[in-house]
TrEMBL record:
Descriptive protein name: Cystathionine gamma-synthase
GO molecular function, a single term: cystathionine gamma-lyase activity
UniProt-listed Pfam families: Cys_Met_Meta_PP
Record PTM N6-(pyridoxal phosphate)lysine, positions in chain: K195
Gene3D superfamilies: Aspartate Aminotransferase, domain 1, Type I PLP-dependent aspartate aminotransferase-like (Major domain)
Superkingdom of this protein's organism: Bacteria
GO cellular component: cytoplasm
Cofactor: pyridoxal 5'-phosphate
Similarity comment: family membership: Belongs to the trans-sulfuration enzymes family.
């Protein structure tokens, strides 16, 4: 079954009671049992809910996995993964990652004795220098947020397998349409479902997809035991959103290519980060492991002044200045003060995340309108 067909049909069945083609919103907290322990597979909606089950099966199919597990947010999903580990365990993470992930790792779990190492991963082989007998997981983002670095998933998977280490990949920026980390050897795929999977800026959710039955069992136990589960209304919204994921990602990628080319040739733009450029570091790896390059772009302006970046973002008419990404509408953000503010300035700047960096989430509007919006805003600085 091809991706577009899976997006619409995988894991989704007509409602057995009515034949409704859309999965119903099972807005219930509990389920009637015939006798104690004798039920129809559902007993309490924190544990299971039919709307959530349909979504989890759909997500698993999109990532070519066996088990999908949904959470109330992307950070809730990451939190469940870290709960697999014990004090003294070491986790190697890419040094360019979402600020919320960094905050969870350093401000919450370091207090409980889990050790995090933040290292550059553009050269996957260099990760081996940081592995010890206590290393239990490697945490990868690719493309990274916000510097769009590309990490070779297959190479890291070979390294992690050889050392019996779990490999987890945050696949939020790519989505399952552009990249499938399980096929490249990853053990866990994480999504902030809020972004491209939901796609309409109307829901907050996270998800994990795995193949290993035992690993899935542990994560499902944590999901139920800690209770960070999404409600059926949110699950319904994501099921609806996923039905157009392939169409949206095609347009995001087309528009991303157009806007990246426009910015690259603009005299007021200094550095631009987009993996579709042949000059982008590890472009060949991106070409190998991704189907296209998506709609996420970061850039700086000539002069590298934060004041100019702020003026630009305040001058947009279509690009909305807002947190998040991956919706149908185009957004712009200032990582240093928004999504990555929890990372110390000196750590941000080590990876190139300067205070003047602008991040764009290019939506599915008409590309000419987006270029005109950029041209108008750039003329104001």
């Amino acid at each position: 079954m091809k991706f577009g067909t899976k997006a619409i049909h995988a894991g989704i069945e007509p409602d057995p009671a009515t034949g409704a083609i859309m999965t119903p919103i099972y807005q219930t907290s509990t389920y009637v049992q015939q006798s104690p322990g004798d039920h129809k597979g559902y007993e309490y909606s924190r544990t299971h809910n039919p709307t959530r089950t349909a979504l989890q099966n759909n997500l698993a199919a999109l990532e070519n996995g066996k088990h999908g597990i949904c959470f109330s947010s992307g950070l809730g999903a990451i939190d469940a993964v870290i709960k697999l580990f014990n004090p003294g365990d070491e986790i190697i993470s890419t040094n360019d990652l979402y600020g919320g992930s960094y905050r969870l790792f350093t401000k919450v779990y370091e207090r409980y004795g889990i050790i995090f190492k933040f290292v550059p991963m553009s050269d996957a082989a260099s990760i081996a220098d940081h592995i010890t007998e206590n290393t239990k997981m490697i945490w990868v983002e690719t493309p990274t947020n916000p510097m769009m670095n590309i990490i070779d998933i297959a190479a890291v998977a070979k390294l992690s397998t050889g050392n019996k280490i779990i490999l987890a990949v945050d696949n939020t920026f790519a989505s399952p349409y552009l990249q499938n980390p399980l096929d490249l050897g990853a053990d866990i795929v994480m999504h902030s479902v809020t972004k491209y999977l939901g796609g309409h800026s109307d829901v907050v959710m996270g998800a994990l997809v795995v193949n290993d039955d035992e690993l899935a069992k542990k994560l499902v136990f944590i999901q139920n035991a800690t209770g960070a589960t999404p409600g059926p209304q949110d699950c319904f919204l994501v099921i609806r959103g996923i039905k157009t994921l392939h169409l949206r990602m095609e347009r995001h990628s087309q528009n991303g290519k157009t806007i990246a080319a426009y910015l690259k040739n603009h005299p007021k733009v200094d550095k631009i980060y987009w993996p579709g450029f042949e000059s982008h570091p590890n472009h060949e790896i991106a070409k190998k492991q991704m189907r296209d390059y998506g709609g996420m772009i970061s850039f700086t302006l000539v002069g590298n002044k934060e004041s100019a970046a702020r003026k630009l973002m305040e001058s947009f008419q279509i690009f909305a200045l807002a947190e998040s990404l991956g919706g149908v509408e185009s957004l712009c953000g200032h990582p240093a003060s928004m999504t990555h503010a929890s990372i110390p300035k000196e750590e941000r700047e080590k990876v190139g995340l300067v205070d003047s960096l602008i991040r764009l989430s290019v939506g599915v509007e008409d590309a000419e309108d987006l270029k005109n919006d950029l041209a108008n805003a750039l003329s104001k600085i």
